Amino acid sequence: MKYVSTRGQAPVLSFEEAMLTGLARDGGLYVPETVPTMSADEIAGLAGLSYEEVAFKVMRPFIGEEFTDRELEACIRHAYAGFGHAARAPIKQLAANHFLLELFHGPTLAFKDFAMQLIGHLFQTALEKRGEKITIVGATSGDTGSAAIEAFRGLDNVDVFILFPHGRVSDVQRRQMTTPVEGNVHALAVDGDFDDCQARLKDMFNHFEFRDAVGLAGVNSINWARVLAQVVYYFTSAVSLGAPHRKVSFTVPTGNFGDIFAGYIAREMGLPIEKLVIATNQNDILHRTLETGVYAKAGVTPSISPSMDIQVSSNFERALFDAYGRDGAVVAKQMEDLANGEFKISQGAMEFLREVFNSGRASEDETRAAIKDVHDETGEVICPHSAVGVKVAKEHLGAVPMITLATAHPAKFPDAVKEACGMDAPLPGRMSDLFEREERVTRVPNDLTAIETLIHNRTGR
Ligand SMILES: *Cc1c(COP(=O)(O)O)cnc(C)c1O
Predict the structure, then answer these.
(1) What backbone torsions phi and psi does residue 261 show, to the nearest 5 degrees?
(2) Mean pLDDT in the chain?
(3) Atom of ligand 1 nearest to the CA of 408
(4) Nearest to residue 276, comparing CAs of 369, 164, 385, 392?
(5) Which one, of 244, 225, 224, lies nearest residue 234 by Cα?
(6) Contact at 8 Å (CB) between 36 and 136?
(7) 110 within ligand 1 shell (Cβ under 6 A)
(8) What spacing in Å lies between the alpha carbon of 254 and ligand 1's midpoint?
(9) Distance from the CA of 119 to the CA of which of 74, 125, 155, 382 falls in 20 to 30 A?
(10) 336: which residues sit within 8 A by CB, 6+ positions away?
(11) At what angle do helices 347-356 and 316-323 cross, to 10 degrees?
(12) Domain Tryptophan synthase beta chain-like PALP spans what residues (predicted)?
C-alpha cells in the first residue's frame, strides 16, 4: 500500500513512513493511492466480532508489510485495553431510527483516544525497530492534546509538545494536558486561537531545517494513521444496525474534518452509508461551503463546543482531492488562494461533495436546547459537541437509520452541561482526583522562532 500527497509533489511513501511524517513535504496530506474495498459478504462477516477483531480486518489492508500481523494485533489489543467499556464504542438508541455512538470511553474521554492510543503503540513499535528518536508536536483545540499526551507519555524515544490556545480550552481539558508528570511531556499555552496553533505547527513542518534537526513528527488529525483508526467504528456501528443488508447515515460533529473523513473512507471501502452529515457549531465554514460552493475563512468565535472552534478544516483537503479527480495541482492552487481568504470550488467538485455529504449548523442556544431535549426525552446527559450533532441529525432523519457520533464525555464540559440541563456531569472514578494534581505549563507567544527555540532547548537537538 502506497500513500500519495494531495498536492502531488511529495514523495510516495509507505504506511509507516506516512504515519511517522504526518504532513507531506509539499504541504499536502497523505492519502492511500487506492482505497481497498470489502465485499458485502466480508462486511456481513464482521457481525458479532469484537471491536479489536473488526479493527484488524478493516485496517490490515492499509498498513502494508512493515507491521506483521502479530505486531498489528498487539498494538490494537493494547490500544483499547484501557477503555472503560467492553464494547469500546457502544451504541444507544435516542429515538425511532436515531442512535448515538458513544466514543468517549477512552482514557481522556473523547473520541480522539481511538486513534491516538493506537498510534502511540504503532509509533513505539516502529521506532524501536528503527532505533530512532522523534519529536512530536501537536496543535489542539482541547482534546487532541490530552489524547496525544496520554498516548505518548513516558515513551523513551519520543518528546511530545502540545500547543493549545491559552484560555480557550476547558479546565478538564487543560488539566489533562498539564498534570502528567513525565519529563517527555511539554504543554505550551499559546497566546492565540486554535488556528494560530495549527498555523505555527504547519510552519514548523515547512521549515525543513528545524523539521529534520528535531525529527519532527505530527499526530494531528492530518496524520493518516489517525484517520484510519477512526474508520473502524463506522463499521462496528453500521454492522450492529444491519449493514450491509441495511443502509445507515451518520451525523458527525465536525471541526478539522478528520472524523467525518474516516466515514468517507468507510463508504469508499464499500460500507453502505447513505449520507454523511457535517454538523458544525457557529463556526460554520463547512456548512457554508456546502451551501455556497465557496470556502471562505471568517474569524473564530469561541463556543461551548470548543473542540469544533475551527475555521480551516485541514482534512477537507483530502475530500477536495477526490472531488477534483485526484488532481494535486488543482488542490495546491486552491490552497494557495486560501492564503488570501477564500477559494471557489468548481461545480463538478461540488456535485461530488454533495452526493456524499449533507450539512447543518447549531447556534449556542440550539446546542443548549439539544442537551436539554436529549435529557428530557431519554435521561441521557450529552456533551455540547454531541449536542451539535443531535440537533443537526434531527433535521436529517428519514427512512435510513441515523447514527450520531457522541464525541466527548459530558464531564469534560460540566459548566455548559449544567447550564443547559441542570445536571452535574461527574468525572469517571479513574480520574476523579484531576483537580488535585499539580499543573505544569509554559506560556509562549504566537511566534514561530520562539516556539522552535524552546523545542530545541528542551530536546537538546
Ligand atoms: C476533535 C473533536 C471534534 C471534531 O473532530 P474533527 O475530526 O476535528 O472534525 C468534535 N468533538 C470533539 C469532542 C472533539 O474532540
Answers:
(1) -65, -30
(2) 95
(3) 13
(4) 392
(5) 244
(6) no
(7) yes
(8) 6
(9) 382
(10) none
(11) 120
(12) 99-332
Query: Per-domain residue ranges for the chain?
Result: 91-106+224-421
Look up residue 215 and give its three cell numbers.
525529527
Residue 308: CB within 6 Å of ligand 1? yes
Bridge partners (DSSP) listed for residue 165: 190
Which CATH code, of 3.30.70.20, 3.40.50.1100, 2.60.40.150, 3.30.1330.30, is assigned to 91-106+224-421?
A: 3.40.50.1100
- DSSP secondary structure, 181-246, as one string: --TTEEEEEESS-HHHHHHHHHHHHH-HHHHHHHTEE--STTSHHHHHHHHHHHHHHHHHTTTTTS
Q: Give tens-digit pLDDT for 429-444.
A: 888 899 999 999 999 9
Evaluate: CB of 253 within 6 angstroms of ligand 1: yes
Here the cell at position 70 is 502479530
Note the maximum CA span of the chain: 59
The residues, ordered by sequence, that sit 6+ positions from 301 with a Cβ below 8 Å of its Cβ are 282, 283, 309
- Residue from 226, 228, 407 to probe ligand 1 pocket by mutation (most atoms less than 8 Å from CB): 407
CA-CA distance, 218 to 28, in Å (whole number)?
A: 13
Structure confidence by residue, pLDDT tens digits, 93-146: 999 999 999 999 999 999 999 999 999 999 999 999 999 999 999 999 778 899
Stated pTM of the model: 0.94
Catalytic residue among 2, 57, 92, 112: 112
Is 112 tagged catalytic?
A: yes
> Is the beta carbon of 282 within 6 A of some atom in ligand 1?
no
Residues 161-198 have pLDDT tens digits of: 999 999 998 899 999 999 999 999 999 999 999 889 98
